[in-house]
Write a structure and sequence with these properties.
Elements lengths: L1 H32 L30 E8 L1 H4 L8 H14 L2 E6 L7 H7 L3 H9 L2 E5 L2 H4 L11 H25 L4 E5 L11 H19 L5 E4 L2 H5 L15 H14 L3
Parallel strand pairs: 1-2, 1-3, 3-4, 4-5
């Protein structure tokens, strides 16, 4: 019995040795011939779906007044517990003053930049909404300038100029697209406020936002029936009273200020 165990152990040792030598020869062959060891591709990382509104076909009803809201988180109402935002307040005012049935299509997307909005307007369903609108509301530019607050860490003239030089042509292109698909709708662009006006470097950030709004209004002035709605002054003296918990988006009171300002510019 002992001899069988010894014999079996020797056989297994010999097999293991041959396998090791064979593996070494195979590896050395790959090394000297330059053959690459092919690794299996990593599993793809699933990306979350973009929060893009799903659009239904446009059905224009006789006697209704259509409002299209485009742009970033301000249009969506982020920061307002009821998510009414400036759009909800303005539309409520429109209904009260006009006595008409108001049809609202709110296509606001959190985090949207001017580049993304310009691309969004290239989609046929969005263009159909633009064509059907009587009033178009646009909030854009805050994510280009502030980048979630990160950009305010670099207030150098070169950085601000680079950002403006990238944004202003995009705004111009957005308005061109809107006018191409709808020559008669009234367009209201929501100007920027400064959520950092009570922090360090407030004099600099205030100037940056004022200049941004001025240059944006110059672009808007090139197009008929297009108005930039000022909001800077609404937040300037009591900004903390009108900001949500994130200290960036408006709260319900802040959105009401913007909505009331916008509604005051809409005539019937």
């Amino acid at each position: 019995m002992r001899e069988k165990v010894i014999r079996w152990t020797m056989i297994m040792g010999l097999v293991s040795g041959l396998l090791w030598v064979g593996g070494l020869v195979f590896a050395m062959q790959d090394y000297f011939t330059g053959a690459a060891v092919v690794q299996p591709p990593p599993a793809p990382i699933e990306q979350p779906a973009a929060a893009i509104p799903v659009l239904a076909p446009v059905a224009v009803k006789e006697g209704t007044f259509r409002v299209l809201a485009l742009g970033d988180s301000l249009t969506k109402g982020t920061g307002d517990p009821e998510r009414k935002g400036y759009v909800g307040h303005a539309v409520a005012d429109m209904k009260a003053k006009s006595g008409k049935e108001i049809v609202l299509e709110n296509l606001g997307i959190d985090g949207q930049t001017s580049t993304q909005l310009a691309a969004y307007l290239g989609q046929a369903p969005v263009q159909a909404q633009v064509k059907a609108a009587d009033i178009i509301l646009v909030s854009i530019g805050g994510n280009d300038l502030f980048r979630g607050g990160q950009a305010m860490g670099d207030l150098s003239e070169n950085r601000i100029k680079e950002t403006e030089d990238a944004y202003l042509p995009q705004l111009d292109g957005i308005l061109q697209q809107l006018r191409e698909h709808n020559p008669t709708a009234r367009i209201f662009i929501i100007g920027l406020y400064n959520p950092f006006s009570e922090l360090k470097d407030s004099a600099t950030t205030n100037k940056v936002v004022r200049d941004w709004n001025y240059k944006s209004s110059e672009i808007a002035g090139k197009y008929t029936l297009t108005v930039l709605v000022p909001t800077f002054d609404l937040f300037q003296l009591k900004v903390q009273d009108y900001l949500a918990k994130d200290l960036f988006h408006p709260n319900a009171a802040g959105y009401r200020l913007i909505g009331d300002r916008l509604a005051s510019l809409i005539t019937w």
